[in-house]
TrEMBL record:
The keyword Transmembrane applies. It comes from Halomonas mongoliensis. This is Uncharacterized protein. Keywords: Membrane, Transmembrane, Transmembrane helix. It comes from the Bacteria. The keyword Transmembrane helix applies. The chain crosses the membrane at residues 27-48.
Length: 49
């Protein structure tokens, strides 16, 4: 009997969980928290005037 394949997406190896997301979603997951952090820091530092 052949190796029983476990269920995962066909795009790539199952251990790349982020690879199952689209590129746009991955970018948003990284950039959105960074942008919010930068906005909070810049506002707290008084850079907005």
């Amino acid at each position: 009997m052949a190796h029983r394949a476990h269920r995962h997406r066909l795009e790539g190896p199952c251990h790349f969980s982020l690879m199952s997301l689209s590129v746009g979603r991955r970018l948003m997951l990284v950039l959105l928290p960074l942008a919010l952090l930068w906005l909070a820091v810049s506002w707290a530092a008084g850079w907005w005037g």
